[in-house]
Amino acid sequence: MPLFSRRPSLPAPIREQLALPSRDRVLVATELTGGGWAAATRRALYVVDPTVDRHPWADVDRATLDADTSVLTVHWVTGTSQELPLTGSGAPAFAQVLRERVQSSVVHSEKVPVKGAGSVRVALRRDEDGELMSQVIGDGTVDLTDPAVAALVDAAERRVRAAAGLAG
Asked: What CA–CA distance (Å, rounded) separates 43 from 151?
């Protein structure tokens, strides 16, 4: 039996709130400083504080952990972010699993510089059912309605999909 394990220590009532489908399981969980919980499963990030918020991995752009405060800042593909104040020594392990799950959802990506307006990333990702989908993730400074920008993004999306053997 291993001495150390990433098995979750979720209280039963919290686990029941997650209502995980049979093909999903908790990989790691940690308590939040306010008394809530964060759980990383094979398919999604759950935040229970006190309601349950479920976020498929393809909705997470990235996350950063402040090692001094154990605050994990989750950046969503929508451009917003959420701070999760994790408790104790479980923060690094939780952040690592989150990083692994987000990375496993990315099949291929390309950064597209937009002259005078920043950049966007075009990514091919797996949704929670394993289906491939394209995402355009901006930095908030790019006008995607501009025809020239739209043409750049469309071309990048075609390249990203072609790199994975997908049509247009």
From this structure: 33
SS3 assignment for 105-164:
HEEEEEEEEECCCEEEEEEEEECCCCCEEEEEEECCCCCCCCHHHHHHHHHHHHHHHHHC
Over the stretch 83-93, which tens digit does the pLDDT of each residue have? 999 987 789 99
Cis amide bond preceding 50, omega within 30: yes
Which stretches of the chain score pLDDT less than 70? 1-8, 168
User: Is the separation of the CB atoms in 120 and 138 below 8 Å?
Assistant: yes
12-105: CATH topology = PH-domain like (2.30.29)
- The pairing of strands 118-126 and 132-138 is antiparallel
What is the residue extent of each domain of the chain? 12-105, 106-164
Report the distance separating Cα 166 and Cα 168, nearest Å: 7
Strand order in the sheet with 81-85: 60-66, 71-76, 81-85
What pLDDT score does 1 carry? 47
139: tokens are 């930095």
Q: What is d(CA 54, CA 121) in angstroms, rounded to the nearest whole number?
A: 24
* Whole-angstrom distance, CA of residue 30 vs CA of residue 88: 9
